[in-house]
Specification:
With 322 residues, the protein is of the alpha/beta class. It contains ten helices and 13 strands.
Amino acid sequence: MSTPLRLGTRGSKLAMAQSGHVAEALTAATGRPVELVEVVTAGDRSSAPVHRLGVGVFVSALRDALTAGTIDFAVHSYKDLPTAAAAGLHVAAVPTRQDPRDALVARDGRTLTELPSGATVGTGALRRIAQLHALGMQLEVTPVRGNVDSRVARVLGPEADLDAVVLARAGLARLGRTDVITETLDPMLMLPAPAQGALAVECRADDTDLVELLAVLDHAPSHAAVIAERALLATLEAGCSAPVAAYAELAEGDAGEEIYLRGAVISPDGTRDLRLSRTGTPADAAEIGKALAAELLDLGADSILGQDGHAGPGTQQFGSTE
């Protein structure tokens, strides 16, 4: 039997689940055995709000292990990756994306519009906080940290202290917890984070055999959508304190397959909200994202991005993978 490939992963329940799915898929497709190697990141050791921890807080330790050769490849929640390329590393595959929308978990089975004025809603992402404020529902929005189970317990547990939480539907799905969702939020109300629901399978760029092996996991439509969303993010040079949202969908158009990309920049208090969309072909995914970002900048997005300090290029850290 071949020597098992070492797959580096964070040790959280969600990270282990999504890495396990990738390991099983690779073994099924290629016959190569895979073993999971837990790597502790700075984000796992801190209880500070995610947007204050810095860029790439959930991925730097995994990338260090890749560079050092202690693991062969890693699985990241793609939205946690900085937009700047990592020297010597290569994203070899983007598996089929989970539903990228956000989900509401609320008491008494309520939907978002059924929450009363003054209801307390928890979330770890500034993007979600800004969009909740922009709805004008007079909700009390509070930052929360923790894994999926601990966040859900803040609403449904015996010591619940919140009326609702908003978190990524993909994480709930990967953990088999979709039963607690009271509403999957329409992107018209809550536009997802760039690359939300997508995984990045990363290895060393010079390991050409592994690059080729991992390519079997790539799902071209998911990869194209993520490229468009992250090109928008990179062009905006959005920092960890900037609520930026993007969602690309692929559909059949009059001239073949098209990407429909929506992007938004929202001030933290929700009072300024720029939203635009653009279409193009999957082959032009990166250019679509860049062009849409340029339109947002022409409308003043840079002034919104600078309100709480512009962290500079290459950042993409709106919330943990959970």
